[in-house]
Each structure stands twice: as C-alpha cells, then as structure tokens.
Amino acid sequence: MKFLYFTDTHIRGTSPKNRLDDFAETLKLKIQEVIEIANQENVDFIIHGGDVFDRPDLSPNVVGQFAKIFRMAHMPIYAISGNHDTFGHNPNTLSRTMLGLLDSFGLMTIIHPHKPILIEKDGLTIQLSGQPYHYDLDQRDPKLDYYPINEHDADYMIHLVHSMLVEKALPEGIPHTLIDHIWGTTADILFTGHYHGGFGIKEREGTYICNPGAIARVNNHWSELSRMPKIIVGELTKERIDLKEQVLKTAQSGERVLDRSFLEKAVHQEEKLHEFIQQVKEQTEFQSLQMSEIIQELATMSDVDETVKQEALRRITAVEEAWKGEEYE
Ligand SMILES: [Mn+2]
C-alpha cells in the first residue's frame, strides 16, 4: 500500500508581501507536481496535514482554480484542518469554511478526532486518524492528541496532527511539544504539520515521526530561505515501513522567491496572539467571533476603564468598516 503526505499549502490568491514571485501561480505548479507524483507513483491515497487554505473564507474564484488541480488526483485525498482553515482557529466551524465545502463535494475527506478511517488493500489494513488544530494542543496531556487508539485492529496506524511538534524547545509563551516526549505514541507513523520548517523523517524502534515542512514558504525567516519544499512518499507491507522524502522540482530556491528587505515579526506576533487568547479563555467562555462582543466581555471581566473600552470599540469598528470595502482576493 502506497501513500503520499504533504502539508501546509496555505492556498491564497494574493502574494505575501515578502514574496518576489506570483505566489498563487507558483503554488499551482507545486500542487500540480504533488498530484502528478501521486499519480505516477500510483499511490493509494494522498494525505494533507492541514492549512490547506490560508484563510477559511477564501474567494470561490481562487478555491475553484485549485479545486481543478486537486481533481486531477486518481486517488482519494484525506486531510485534517489546520488553524488557518477554520474561523477563530476553531475546528467546529469547519462546515462554514472552504475546506468544509471541499469535503462536502467529496474532493477531500476531512478526518475528525476519534473517527478514524480504515483503508484496506491486499489483506493489509491501515487506520488513518487525525487531530485538527485546536487551542489546547501542546498544552494538555500529549496522549490526548498524539496517541491514537487502534479501533479497527489495523496492521498499521497512521496519525495526523496539526501541531507545534519540534525537536528543540521554543521560546516561552509558544505552546509546543518535543518529539522526544512522544516516542511512546501508539501510532506507527505520526505525520505533523503547522511547524513550517519541518524536521524530516525520524525513526525509533520502528515508530516514525515526520514533518517534511510546509509546501508554501509564507514568511522570510532565515530558515525558510534555505529550506526546499518536500513531500513524503510511503510504502507499507506486512513486513516493513518505507518512507522517503522528495524535494519538489517546481519549487525555486528561497533567494529567488523570498524578499529579505524587511524583517519578519511573525514569532513575536504569535506570542502576543497566544497571550491574548489565553487571557480570553481564562476569563470567559466566549461563544462569539464578533470582536466587539469579545471586547465588551473582556472589559466587564477585567476592570477596564470605560474610556479605554470605548476607544477599543471605536478602533475595531473603523477597521471592520475598512475591511468591508476591500477585496481580499
Ligand atoms: Mn501553517
């Protein structure tokens, strides 16, 4: 049984400001190449590790252009949702997103937590399970997210997680899990996405933990400049697991596509965002995605001065109105 794994395509119609090329056109070539490899290698299924789209409400025009490419695959595509695929990073909003739409059309099959899929061929059975991105990832017992249960008594378990699984500890404030802490995983092969740099294929006593890195290079960190986008092709028999990384031929060198003329502040922003979200979560069970309601709630929970609250609401309203008049495609 053969399969292909890739992750973090971050499909969007516009180019990130640090790109020198036409990001969407480059991405089309890369995804075409991924599908062509899958067809040539005659894999039985394709797996996507999440962040298929860069935003949940991408325009139908852009989604349509990429849907045509995914349709060229001769085999099913399974995926989990990443933080960029859903509203408010909440996997429960999937049905309202473009990824949810692809799932409804049958173009991709989204794997939900604790609902593994059984794949069978020539007497070999594989259980494919997944954990989409959610806010408690890498902040609660790792067994809940990284240790699947063999519900189908399958020969092999492949498990996907869209999470910050890394080799070395990250700065304070960024939730993460170290590979070395989860070698006890029940999965035979663990595939992760989210951490764009990736760490390749790791193996210990027959267990594999892999992240080939993001297909898209959306930021201009030094690490991204030297990194080439890769996929993993895997083959399973009763006797053995065989996994190989493959660099995409259509991907250009980082120097040609990434602009280093301004410095990326993404890591810092992520820390701030995390801090803000933790604050909200600690204080209230908010059900709303309306920024103004969140501010109201935050203000009543913590003793925020009325003038500060009013100013925050005024600014948010101004930004929201500016957004409405703008095409984001
Ligand atoms: Mn991502």
Mean pLDDT: 88
- The share of residues in extended strands comes to 15-25%
SSE arrangement, N to C:
EHEHEHEEEHEEEEEEHEEHHHH
Q: Provide the CATH architecture of the largest domain.
A: 4-Layer Sandwich
- The chain-level structural class is alpha/beta
Q: What is the total number of structural domains? A: 2
Q: Per CATH, what is the topology of the largest domain?
A: Purple Acid Phosphatase, chain A, domain 2
* Low-confidence segments: 324-329
Number-wise, the strands total 14
Q: Given the C-alpha coordinates, what overall shape results?
A: globular
Bound molecules: manganese (II) ion
- Please identify which CATH superfamily of the largest domain we are dealing with: Metallo-dependent phosphatases
Give short descriptive properties of this protein.
single chain, about 325 residues, alpha/beta, Purple Acid Phosphatase, chain A, domain 2, 2 domains, 6-stranded mixed β-sheet, 9 helices, 14 strands, about 30% helix, disordered C terminus, binds manganese (II) ion
Describe the fold and architecture.
The chain is of the alpha/beta class and about 325 residues long. The protein folds into 2 domains: about 1-255, Metallo-dependent phosphatases (Purple Acid Phosphatase, chain A, domain 2), CATH 3.60.21; about 285-325, no CATH class. It has helices spanning about 25-40, 60-70, 100-105, 145, 220-225, 255, 265-285, 290-300, 305-325; strands at about 1-5, 45-50, 75-80, 110, 115-120, 125-130, 155-165, 165, 175-180, 190-195, 200-205, 205-210, 230-235, 240-245. α8 (about 290-300) runs antiparallel to α9 (about 305-325). The chain starts with a strand and ends in a 5-residue tail after the last helix. Mean pLDDT is about 90; it is low at about 325-329. The site of manganese (II) ion (MN) has 8 residues, from loops.
